[in-house]
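check this one:
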Amino acid sequence: MSELIKQDKRSLGGVRAYFIRGHGGWLLYAIWLLVNISILYVVLGSELPIIQSMFGNIVTFGVIFVISYITLATIIGYVDIELKGIYGQETGVYWDAVPQVKKILELLNHLVDMILDIQTKIDVLEKRIEDMSKKKTLEEV
């Protein structure tokens, strides 16, 4: 797998991928979420009055539900991606079907490595210049 993809997994984009993967189809997510919160609050509230007394109103229940759901879906997505569940099999098929994309990602990864190497060399040169100017200033004093 490309280094760029590995780095993306550690970023916010990686967490987003885990969440979407754990949830499944996300286009109707907002509607699904609102409907489920409403149904759960009404059904649980009518069957278990303690639910309404614990949360007070649907907004509090909704906030707690959303936080819990997003956390759980993200964990499920993480397990699916990192433990090579279906996602790993899908990407394996994809790489076999489209080798050009793999080559492009490898070239981009190489380009990023070159840019980082150049940046490191520039930082070293800037540090040397700074040290030389400090040394010259001390010699003048």
